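Self-study notes.
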Amino acid sequence: QVQLVESGGGLVQVGGSLRLSCAASGRTFSSYRMAWFRQAPGKEREFVATITWSSTSSTNIYYADSVKGRFTISTDNAKNTVYLQMNSLKPEDTAVYYCAADRNKFRPAVAPSQYDYWGQGTQVTVSS
């Protein structure tokens, strides 16, 4: 089992940056596939980024096309934390951002239904 708590959201101007954190407790997050999702008002939850493991123990990272080149997912194993660095923010990035985890750590996934553990979410608002 793992408990996830997001932080770092807030209000930022267009073109600005934010760094979201997802602190995991219980099992270490390295035992899980980790991902970030977001949900804007009136929209379904959508995939943002994920980090998984290969058979060589290296990380594999995947991004949604809408954030590729602007967002970066990373981990700090010692702190059991996953980060989402968000640069060049746009108004359409406004959403509640959720951290998610699943035990199938070798398999990438982009659907919310493929993740079993979720944080409470943190609001990101980008002013136009």
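Second protein, same conventions, sequence then structure:
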Amino acid sequence: QVQLVESGGGLVQPGGSLRLACVASASFSGYTMGWHRQAPGEQRELVASITSRDSTVYADSVKGRFTVSRDSAKRTVYLQMNSLKPEDSAVYYCALALVSNAYRYWGQGTQVTVSS
């Protein structure tokens, strides 16, 4: 079983930036990793994903502002979030997919709050 641990969340003002990290207990070099978010009372949303060959996909709401990357040697996936908006406030989760879009392993989540 793969353990995933997110970090880097916190309180930031609108227009600010945060960098989230997700450390895995085992190698994910052969799999897709995704970042998801869920706000209170809302459905969980896929924000960004990165494949084993570094292909990336972003939700329309974050294109141009968020960047997902991976460092397989460090077993870490990152989500750089710039130009943050209040509507970006949510709990952010990382997850690992054994096959395309089938996320099997999940982290505990990290809270991001964008407010003045």
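Instructor comment on the second fold: The chain has a mean pLDDT of 96.
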